[in-house]
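Possible race condition, two jobs.
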Amino acid sequence: MRELWEALCALPHRGSATGMEARAAGLLRGWLEARGHAVRTQPFRAPRTYGWELLAVSLALAAGGLLELFWLALLGALAFWAHFRGVWTPWAALFDRHPSQNLLAEAGAGGRTLVLMAHYDSAKTWFIYDPRRVRGFRANFLLNAVLAFALPPAVLVPWLGQAVGLYFLAQAALLLWRELTAPYVNGANDNASGVAVAAALFDELARQAPPGWRVVLALTGCEEVGTKGALALARSGEIPADALILNLDNVGRGTLFYAVGEGMLGYRPYAGELLEAARALPGAQPLEYRLAYFDTRAFPKNPCLTLIRLEEGVIPNWHWPSDVAAHVRWEDVEQTWEYALKLVHSLLGGRG
């Protein structure tokens, strides 16, 4: 497990839909095939950053406010909602232009399916992720959401819509600066740590596949730009609607939590066997996760659970250049693996 994690961290980054993400995919394939697992590649297309779409959304909101055009302000608000809810839009193809891939491996057979999921891409940084201000990320997001949704009626009030339009014009300028200057981060915690645990769990389960269970390893690309890999996997029909999905994301440092639900805009509570097993197993705390989204967002009908580690309510070194191997506590990764293995064994027949 550590060998795989160190190999991923040795890459400068794994930016979504970049050549480095493709190199990481090749590395992961090699690690799995060396252990006797057949690996399938599921190609799809995605953006290399979420910034250009959010820049377009901000410009639509800015123009709608400054020009006092209700229909344009409404379009901008709907585009904001669609982006953060993960809803398909007719303009998605304008941004989904670069090749990426999911990696899939399977073991066992039966009427039940357990999916072990983790994204292997890493993100671009931005000033809002600075550790000195990242605790205000949620408040900043809610401010943007309130202003975006309030803009259409605000354009009916003299000067009010224009004031909000100026706010989004300034935001568009900051997003442009990000896209032109910001680097991708290494992603030792986010999410090389989760990939290492998911792959090691799969390797362990594949040695003695539990009767009646099909175990799928899904290593997804482009989570950082809108869960594009997970959406491609969901649309492929390869994951049954009743499959249990255990997602691992940012498990390299901090207190271990199991998410009982998620949602930036609108909250989706989890339910099902994984959640009940986590509640019965000591070693992790429950969490209503509203800070960002997980790949499980693409599977709203499946019983899901995500394991994540936080420090003081946020992801350590989240999307910041300090997300490197030196800032991961390996004992935390190992403890996550041990917890996840016990959790899975409690579901697959009580072994271990």
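Job #2 (started ~2 s after job #1):
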Amino acid sequence: MDTAEGRPGPDATTSTTPWELGRVVGRGPAHDPLASVRTPNDPTFDVFLSGTVFLDIIFTGLAGPPTSGTEIYTDGMGCSPGGVANLAIALSRLGLRTSLAAAFGHDVYGAFCRRTLEQQEGVDLSTSREFPNWHSPVTVSLAYQADRSLITHAHEPPLPADEMIRTSGLPRTRAAFVDLGPEMEDWTHQAGADGARIFADVGWDPTEQWSSALLDRLSACYAFMPNTPEALAYTRTDTPEAALAKLGDLVPVAVVTRGSKGALAIDNETGEYADVPALPVEALDATGAGDVFAAGFVTSTLAGWPLLHRLRFANLCAALSVQHFGGSLSAPGWADIAGWWQVAKRVPGLGDIAKDYSFLDDVVPHDPVGAVRRASATIGFQTEGIEP
């Protein structure tokens, strides 16, 4: 990844903000999807989140997973920040002012992830911490036949997010994104009390107990966006529709994603219900697609779009992401979205899609915006000058 080695970083004597820096260094002119709703009294950030950043090493083009005692070769490989970085970068690429609290190791992996997030992608890391004797988490992803296998090496961070945030202070933000399990961090409740909308997701329960007590935490949330297996397990229901109805009693906005079948959602504040199919695409690597979907939904929600448009936009963002490898750096920018829309309007046989997405005429940038960078096989350009 040829990120901006040798280019200027943030200068404390200037008014350059992290997201402005990311666009100047890595991507060119920015598009602000919230421009029409911003006011002088807005919070500093649009979204704040915390979690673990992994170095993801992704191998693609495999016919299948390796079997015992064999070695296989592939010509597809990429490196990118992963874990919570998938969502942070996807949000930032869509123009949201994004801040992340995470631990970083003082090693080549941590330096690569930190510099990619902060300097290339414009994610604010003012509440993050670097720990000299902590090994950065690493995940190897093997992508094959629209599926993947993962191998991860990781240790618990030296400090939980609450302690890092307590030291720096929780920044003002219009929204926050949290993982409900194993338990919500204290900063989430503080953000909600300060007026932030809390968007929540949940990971797979390795115990497969699917405790319903987890759903009690939704009382602090504005929106909840599980996938179908998670939604069915936690609600003890048999269909995505039944799960959505149950979740809709617990949060103002509930979304259930269905992978290649699309997504459905209900917004109790507006009385809207929507059920949309996924876009037909050939997937190269599905890593991070759920995070990119969430970024699209958060962005369009904060922009005040109708629920149907929010679901379709989130589906589009996810569909564009799976056509590239590397979870975080597969996320689309506005140039990708505008480019897809220009083609979709002109390709014969896509009449329904063009009609369904006609709202994009009013939201995509009409002036050129900078392209985003994709994952590549090496992190060597970023290792120069980094102390061991």
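The radius of gyration is 20 Å.
Logs attached separately.
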